Amino acid sequence: MQLQKTISAVEARVHFGEVMKRSFKDKVRYTVEKSGIPMVVIINADEYAHLVEEREERFKILDRIRDKAPLLSSSVVDKDVNKAVHSVRRKHA
What is the pTM of this model? Predict the structure, then answer.
């Protein structure tokens, strides 16, 4: 289970070395807030690489769809893809 922790910007600054170490070793995700507003999230590099890889895979799917439907505008394709994704997510929820 991934541990998620919310800390203030001051706490993040003062304990940055410890935050990095816990994020790396213990896979802790930190949401850093300033004045109670979430500003950034700190995750370890492996998790970030995984998120980037997933994002790139999604865009490859969009590119394949666009290649097969070159006469459609990208906004029409995006709308259809978003509708399909929403439908699948609703079924699995």
Answer: 0.61
Domain that holds residue 19: 4-43
Q: Considering its fold, how many domains does the chain have in total?
A: 2
pLDDT of 18-51, one tens digit each?
999 999 999 999 999 999 999 999 999 999 999 9
> Is 39:32 a contact under the CB 8 Å cutoff?
yes
Q: Are residues 59 and 72 in the same domain?
A: yes
Q: Domain containing 22 — which CATH number? A: 3.40.1620
Helices 45-68 and 74-92 sit at what angle, rounded to 10 degrees? 120
Cα separation, 20 vs 26, whole angstroms: 10
Q: Is 90 exposed, middle or buried (0-12, 13-18, 19+ CB in 10 A)?
A: exposed
Question: For 12-21, how does the pLDDT look when each residue is reduced to its tens digit (9 = 90+)?
Answer: 999 999 999 9
